[in-house]
Amino acid sequence: MALALLPMCIALAGDPPAVRDRIVETGAMLGLLGLGVLSAQALTSGRQRWFARGLGQDDVLQFHRQTGLLGWGLVLAHPLTMFLGDARFLDYLDPREDWLRATPLWTVLLAVTWLATTSLWRLSFGLQYEHWRLLHGALALLVVTIGLGHALMVDHYTGPLWKKLALTMAVGASLYAVIENRVLRPRGLARRPWTVQSVETARDGSHVLRLSPAGHDGLRFRPGQYAWITIGDTPWRVQQHPFSISSSAESSTLEFTIKPLGDFTARIGAIPVGTRAFVEGPYGEFVYLPDACPQGAVFIAGGVGITPILSMLRTARDGGATAPMWLIYGNPAWDDVLYRDALDALSKELPLTVIHVLEDAPDDWDGETGHIDGDLLDRHLPELASLPVYVCGPDALANAVEPALIARGVTADRLYSERFDLV
Fold first, then answer.
1. Membrane-spanning regions, if any (predicted)?
2. Nearest alpha-carbon partner for 248 in 220, 268, 285
């Protein structure tokens, strides 16, 4: 928030210029605020740990999306408000008056509109994630750079040299965050490569990818965290994707379970063993530490949402956890249940109760059917007032389960949720 307000604060500092029409001044402030909001987007998209501390993967991405839409609205409102206050400002967008001035301004308006609409409806537009991500980053940099230039050249508020330097440094810091993420950080990843150890196909068609460290000790992470994976000979590739880690935090090998939902994920099964890979992370605060939960814990998962929870359970097993645990795992059908054998083994190695819930159960099924709801929780779980609860899966699961848990005494500080419907 401070960075978003910084351009406006710099503009208003010192001796303010003569006040113009109030509508015009409002439009100017909207433009400066829009520049600040879009500059701050670099921090939420750049995987800066200091910013994301205490936030989950879905929290950061949803915040990035919502503030991006706010920035879009501010950028569009800026010229409209200026025009309402003084129609002469229309000349700024008229290429017949000054095409060198009008062209970049039209570029900004069109670019922020493309950024906002494709962020909301990328799949509807048929855009591949890799192409969208590349264009998204490039256009965002272009928009902020042009916005900075516009604020400096229209110097009603930025006339003094110190203001120009301060504004350039403030916006430049956010641009550096993007460069650090896309250019400098991969240099560190290049010194810590990984090798594809195996690729297996799970029951539901998901791919289980295992990576082993090549010449280093591996990745220290907390169970429940995720990492960004790049497959190929260089870490400077566009195809970089986030996946939850499903292996134990005590293992040097990393395991990821990847559902084939797009072009990249559909090709995971064809990756040859021995292929070079790079891992950036770990990230995320959806974390379970067995030693910190001596009273036990409850886990509720849907579909591929089992992956971070599996890491939690495997880590608990390797650490010799003795506290009771309950896992409620929902799936469309029995053939869709990931890690059936692994969960069965964990239920024997841990004080773990596993409850499978199927939407479409076979005729001989004697377990739970339908959806996970409050009544099902009452049938299988103990008193929840003192237990931490971890929920991971699609929006529909979280939307149904979280209110039921809160109604049963689970407070916000003991309810941990990660949603997998992200981009």
1. 67-85, 105-123, 135-153
2. 220
